[in-house]
Each structure stands twice: as C-alpha cells, then as structure tokens.
Amino acid sequence: MTGLDHMALNIRIVLIKTWHPGNIGAAARAMKNMGLDQLYLVDPVDFPSPEATSRAGQATDVLANATIVPTLAAALADCALVIGTSARDRSIPLPALSAEQSAQQAVAEQTQSPVAIVFGRERMGLHNDEIQQCHFQLNIDASPDYPVLNLSQAVQLVCYEIHKASLIQPIRPTEAYPLHQELAHFQDHLANTAQAINFINSRHPGQVMEHLQAVFRRARLTRKELSLLRGFLTAVDKTDRRDQESDAAH
What we know:
By secondary structure, the protein is an alpha/beta fold. It folds into 2 domains: 6-166, SPOUT methyltransferase, trefoil knot domain (Alpha/beta knot); 180-249, Helicase, Ruva Protein, domain 3 (Orthogonal Bundle), CATH 1.10.8.590. The chain is 47% helix and 12% strand. It has 10 helices and 7 strands. β1 (11-16), α1 (21-33) and β2 form a beta-alpha-beta unit. It is elongated, with a radius of gyration of 20 Å.
C-alpha cells in the first residue's frame, strides 16, 4: 500500500492563546519535520516574534503562512473532525483516543474535510467550553508521576503519529460529517427551541445544554442525520408558534 503526500494532508494544528513565542516556533518546526504545514494561532500573546522565528529553524515558511484568528470557533468553522488534547478528566467527558488512534482517524477523515488537532495554553490547557467544541479528547500516555508535557513536545509527538499514519493508505469514511459551523448552528437552534417550549429555563439553564451538546458530538451525526434533526426542530418551532397564537386568540 502506498502512503499519502504529507504536505497535502488537510490537518491543521491549532494553538490557543500561546504565551511563549518560542513554543510557536518549536511547534512549527515539529510540524514541518512531520510533513504538516497548516498552523492556526488563536489569539496568540506574542506573535510575530523573533524568538518564534529563531526556534522554528527551517520551518519559517510554516510561521509565515500561519493563520491567526480571534476565537477557537473561527479556527474550526470548516472542520468536520476536531480533536482536543488534554491530560485532565472533564465533568462532561468526551470519547478518549490515544495519540496513535487520533492520528489514524485524522488521516482517514482529512480526505473529506479539514481536521483540527487543538492544543491549549501552556499552563492551563483547554478550558471546558473549548474541549466541548471537540469530538474527541486526545490523551498522551505518560508517567503518572509527571504526565505534563511541554506544548511543543506534545505537538511533536502528535505530528509524529500523524506522519506514521500517513504512510499507510487510510480507510476512507463512507459518510460525510457536518462541519463545526453547521453543528454549532444546530446547537443554537436546539437551545432556542428548548427554551421556547420551556424544556429549559433560560434564567437557570444549568448544564442541560452542555450535556445535550456533548451527546450530539459523541454521536458524530452525519450531514444527512443533522439535516433531519434540523427539520424536526423546525416542525416543533412551527407547532409551538401555532399553539401560542391559538392561546392568544382565546
């Protein structure tokens, strides 16, 4: 079996609010070492920076072509698979994958739509609302005595696994998955409908919507299934409006 053209891999590395510019440069170098060239920076603290350029080595082209965006949602809008790296357990857990499993899935699905691997801040990692924008959580196996990796080291390890996975012809997915932006629109529609029919109290929503959003992310709905659910919500909206109009008439 033949592998894939590494530079053609539609996989982006997303770094959120990176504090140290040297980590950005080192991440760019790690990416180029392993044949990746799509670097997305979400609200970086210090970039462009001479230190980033210095740490990048021969990967200054990756830095020069980096996409800078203000929010994580902007970095993920056109992605159909989002994998967030985190060493911490969450109150609303996502399906967990190893670095190897994440790479295999990323290489397979990037043939249809962009894939994002998301890395959080050096000290705090990903916030809960950020990990909830992901479909899977990537856990890097490490010694329980000290399982915390430097940001650029984590990027290097994940990029290496992607490189290995790219050497094997992937099994292409048979279904098309919705993009992050399409799923976000569905979640907004779901929240609005849930409030309209008093399923949740807008003043005291609790974690109901977060749990519902996690359900649909874990389910990995196809585009066809998502369209069906949007149609269902639209029908519920119309029925609710008719009921309100009927009550007002009486």
